[in-house]
Design brief:
The structure holds two protein chains of two kinds. Chain A is α/β, with parallel strands linked by helices. Helix content of chain A is about 25%, strand content about 25%. In chain A, the strands form four sheets. Chain A has a seven-stranded parallel sheet with strand order 7-11-6-1-4-5-12, with helices on both faces. In chain A, strands 15-16-14-17 form a four-stranded mixed sheet, covered by helices on one side. Chain B has seven helices and 14 strands. In chain B, the strands form three sheets. Chain B has a nine-stranded mixed sheet with strand order 11-10-9-12-8-3-6-7-13, sandwiched between helices. In chain B, strands 1-2 form a two-stranded antiparallel ribbon. The N terminus of chain B is likely disordered. Classes of the chains: A alpha/beta, B alpha/beta. Chains A and B meet through helix 3, helix 4, strand 7, strand 9 and strand 10 of A and helix 1, helix 3, helix 4, strand 9 and strand 11 of B.
């Protein structure tokens, strides 16, 4: 078995694929074989952009009708796989929806999941992923064993998004099957928190402060730096940050083109519990 | 009381108005994060041979569970955990906070288990406790941070789930959750029984009292093996993955410390300009 059929869990905001999605589609294309995107929502809206980055087909669930994507998308993916289109590898972004979908799908397929990865290579008939541990000081390479589909989750900015010049991807409906009890959670209302800046994980520069500043009053230095960089307040810190940490920072994105994604972190998040108690 | 049968075929009790509220919390016992982590040279797995402590991320789930049971007026909080060497130090911390009992899965055969196997084990432990109205876990552990185990448990148990809860309230047979999203938050309603994951800061965990610490010493913790739970294969045999290489990352250059003399921010901006990132 070679790795010829690669899927990407594709996410979009207001009809535009997220940067993490385009990064993964690009990487899937570079691995070779056919690339299929699987999205929750309207496939036609994202077909052109995903096609330009290398996807030839888009499976789209259509509106989820208030269902949470973890259960719904995993069920839709399983239905397509059961229908005969079985991928060798599926790439997911390391975020809330990505983790929920891959977790549900791993049980449905009884396949392992490898998360927090920053690189992937095809090794014979299998796939190996690289995961940084211990603050990035150690790199662990893990190879999937057994048969696919292999399920791998990647951190943002692991790869550079690059267009390939391809045309719009074809769109195929992939409706969500009956979910029974697992699909009983329903979104009653969605609230958007105002934000003028980029998402934290998409920022080129992250300015943050912590205990190293010595006292809360010195946080003005962080604000000053961020303003000088023409930064914008970030919505909030990621919810999965370690307990006891708070993030209050500004992020800055510049239009500078680069062949390699990067984030410059001016100061790292550190526990701020003494300030926020 | 109405019942529901999960995927593993065991009955999970439903909560009703006026009925006891029973909550099971998944607690991970981890090496002290203040100490440097290390991989076992023989297995390339995280060393867990010293004393383990309660993952602080799970203290939020324990506190949330205690508050929900307290609000219901009746019920109890139980724990499930998987750890080597019969380690219960972290569980005792949660018991000292107020949890009533626990199931510890400790088995040398579990060495090398992946997230999916871990989820199967913990789901079986939940079943062994007789199920619950609500299962609570952290969004991810502080050492492994895969973030998939709770949702995998929900799928195995056949439960609905709501992840990344930043506000939780139980109203009769329903749990209402403010679920954090990339853009803000969603208001989600979900019938019980269900599984939720809570974010750090959803509640302020209590400190165990001296009385609680003493009482925890006598609270029951049942130790079982994977075979006791009927989960097989486990460990490397069930992992579907193999660690094939471990290398040290390229050393980073030393950082530059800028002493603030009132104009420190300008030096940092100049530094970034020199790097051409701005």
């Amino acid at each position: 078995m070679a790795v010829n059929n690669i899927w990407v869990f594709a996410q979009a905001v207001d009809g535009t694929p997220t940067s993490a999605t385009l990064e993964l589609v690009t990487k899937a294309r570079q691995l070779g074989g056919s690339v299929t995107a699987f999205t929750a929502g309207d496939g036609a809206a994202v077909a052109a952009s995903l096609g330009a980055h290398g996807a030839s087909k888009v499976y789209a669930t259509g509106d989820l009708g208030g269902k949470l994507p973890g259960v719904a998308v995993a069920a839709a993916m399983k239905a397509v796989i059961d229908g005969g289109d079985s991928p060798d590898l599926i790439l997911f972004p390391q975020n809330m929806e990505g983790r929920d979908v891959v977790a549900r799908l791993s049980v449905k397929l009884d396949r392992t999941v490898l998360t927090n990865n920053v690189d992937v290579v095809v090794v014979g008939d299998s796939v190996a992923v690289t995961t940084p541990v211990f603050g990035g000081n150690t790199l662990v390479t893990t190879t999937f064993t057994g048969s696919g589909p292999y399920l791998a989750v990647f951190r943002p900015k692991s790869f550079a998004a690059e267009e390939s010049g391809g045309g719009a991807a074809s769109v195929t409906e992939a409706p969500v099957p009956e979910l029974a009890a697992t699909g009983a959670a329903t979104v009653e209302a969605s609230h958007v928190e105002e934000s003028t800046g980029p998402k934290l994980d998409e920022a080129a520069i992250v300015v943050s402060g912590g205990r190293g500043l010595g006292e809360a009053g010195k946080y003005v230095m962080i604000e000053t730096i961020a303003k000088l960089l023409k930064g914008a307040p970030v919505r909030r810190g990621p919810s999965w940050m370690p307990a006891g940490c708070r993030t209050a920072c500004r992020s800055v994105r510049r239009g500078r083109s680069s062949s390699r994604p990067s984030t410059s972190r001016v100061a790292f998040r550190v526990p701020l519990s003494t300030w926020w108690a | 009381m109405v019942g529901w049968v999960g995927r593993l075929g065991r009955r999970v009790p439903l909560g009703n108005n006026g009925d006891p509220m029973n909550v099971i919390v998944c607690v991970k016992q981890i090496p002290d994060p203040a100490l440097p982590g290390a991989l076992d040279a023989a297995t390339n797995t995280l060393k867990r041979d010293g004393k383990l402590i309660l993952d602080e991320s799970d203290s939020y789930g324990v506190e949330m569970a205690l508050q929900l049971v307290g609000a219901a007026g009746e019920g109890e909080v139980s724990l499930v955990s998987m750890a080597p060497n019969g380690e219960v130090s972290g569980m005792r911390t949660a018991l000292a906070m107020g949890a009533a009992r626990g199931v510890l899965v400790s088995d040398p055969a579990l060495l090398g288990s992946d997230a999916l196997t871990t989820a199967k084990i913990l789901a079986a432990a939940v079943q062994r406790l007789g199920g619950a109205d609500l299962v609570i876990a952290a969004t991810e552990s502080s050492d492994g941070y895969t973030g998939t185990v709770p949702e995998q448990m929900a799928e195995i148990l056949g439960l609905p789930s709501v992840t990344f809860a930043k506000k939780v309230a139980v109203d009769g047979n329903t749990v209402r959750v403010d679920r954090q999203t990339e853009a803000g938050y969603d208001e989600v309603v979900c019938p019980l029984p269900a599984l939720i994951t809570v974010t750090a800061g959803v509640v302020e965990p209590r400190y165990p009292s001296f009385k609680g610490i003493m009482a925890a010493k006598n609270k029951p913790v049942e130790q079982v093996t994977a075979a006791d739970l009927g989960v097989n294969p486990v460990g490397w045999a069930g992992a579907g993955q193999q660690i094939t290489d471990v290398t040290q990352a390229e050393a980073r250059g030393a950082g530059e410390i800028v002493e603030d003399d009132g104009e420190g921010f300008a030096k940092i901006v100049a530094f970034l300009e020199n790097l051409k990132v701005i």
